[in-house]
Amino acid sequence: MKLFPERLPDALQRGLAPVYLVAGSERLLVEEACDRIRQAGRAEGIAERIRLSADGRFDWNELERATETGSLFASRRLVELRLPTGKPGAEGGKTLRAWAEADRDDVLLIICDAWELNQEKAAWFKAVDGAGVYVPCWPVKPDRLPQWISHRIRSRGLAADDEIARFLAMRLEGNLLAAAQEVDRLALLFPGRTLALDAVREAVADSARFDGFRLAELVLAGQPGGALRCVRGLRESDAPPPAVLWALGRELDIAREVAHRSASEPIARVFGALRVWTSRQPAIQACIRRVGPARLDAAIGTLSRLDRIAKGRASGDFWVELERLCVRLAASPGRPGRAAA
Questions:
Q1: Quick check: 46 and 107 in contact, CB under 8 A?
Q2: What is the 3-state secondary structure (H, E, C) of 75-136?
Q3: Where do the structural domains in the chain lie, given as residue ranges?
Q4: Distance CA 29, CA 113 (A)
């Protein structure tokens, strides 16, 4: 059954299908569809998640072996199979077809990083489509982007007219990830409110100069001076601390997970499992080499303290402590950054 991403949540409320194929070139939509399927699995009591990556050397017997023993936590498991090329080959196609046609308790989620429409003619695809759900994730066309943004705004508990959606679509030039991040930022700035165009224009202009995502980039890239200037710019522009912490924490948490998992897994596989874009990987690797897993763990703890300070639940100067954290993480070993008070 073919379902576009916006229809997936309603279908998941009616229960899980035995197999899902999420494929397409729009990474944001792929990631969010997979997250919804995982959440639905947890809601149905699926506590165990098995992750496999079918690269060129993949042994397709691993898919069968992954579920031939009993689950440690429950009777059902979610098996995630990442298929980078979208083409399983003859052996893989036969294995996937057999899985789709079998009666199983486990749920299979196939994630394709590359996809071509002619692959919908393959026998394995037809078996998966017949037994479960196919979620195609294509880029949103320019004329439909304002509608996509309007839906996104409503999903975040905000209200806005069509003019705001058109402004954001024009401002973000079809970058779906940037649009999603901007809407999330607006939700933090104006929680539960009806957006006004002038306020949105001002917020977007501010984010072009200094925002939490830019701060995270500077920290990961090892630029203590730039990070310090960015924090001070955020402070002077009265940026909301929750928005800053959310953006910085998101990137540091990814770096921390990569640092820990890459100790026992190939880092390329870890990046693929976490859906980290290729353009972001060098900065994350540089941060891991510079900081290390233990200091990244400590940084997440410091962010929790900063969140309590921002909410008045702990004492301290939020901006000064944020400066110290960011400069400390961005500075190279043996060259501690200096954050002036």
A1: yes
A2: CCEEEEEEECCCCCHHHHHHHHHHHHHCCCCCEEEEEECCCCHHHHHCHHHHHHHHHCEEEE
A3: 5-136, 142-208, 213-330
A4: 11
What class is the 5-136 domain? alpha beta
Task: Decide: 28 and 180 in contact? Cβ < 8 Å.
Answer: yes
| Domain 213-330: top CATH class | mainly alpha
| C-alpha span between 212 and 329 (Å, rounded) | 15
Instruction: Please state which of the ranges 45-49, 147-151, 208-212 shows the lowest mean pLDDT.
Output: 208-212
pLDDT in tens, 185-220: 899 889 999 999 988 888 776 554 456 778 888 899
Write down the residue that tokens 């949103």 correspond to: 140
Query: Are 5-136 and 142-208 in the same CATH fold?
Result: no
- The 3-state DSSP class for residue 295 equals helix
What is the average pLDDT across 234-243? 83
Tokens, residue 8: 């997936």
Q: Which of 108, 90, 89, 91 is nearest to 99 (CA)?
A: 108
Write down the pTM of the prediction. Answer: 0.59
Per the rule left: phi > 0, alpha: psi between -120 and 50, beta: everything else, 312 is left
Q: How far apart are CA 27 and CA 273, in angstroms?
A: 13
Q: Residues of 24-36 as b/e, b for ≥16 C-beta within 10 angstroms?
A: bebbbbbbbbbeb
Please give the pLDDT value at position 336: 43
Local structure of residue 173 (DSSP, 8 states) = T
DSSP state of 140: P
> Taking a C-beta distance cutoff of 8 angstroms, is the pair 78, 109 a contact?
yes
Per DSSP, which regions of the chain are E strands? Answer: 19-23, 48-53, 77-83, 107-112, 133-136
User: What secondary structure letter does DSSP report for 23?
Assistant: E
Burial of residue 9 (number of CB atoms within 10 Å: 0-12, 13-18, 19+): middle
Instruction: Reply yes or no on domain 142-208 having CATH 1.10.8.60.
Output: yes
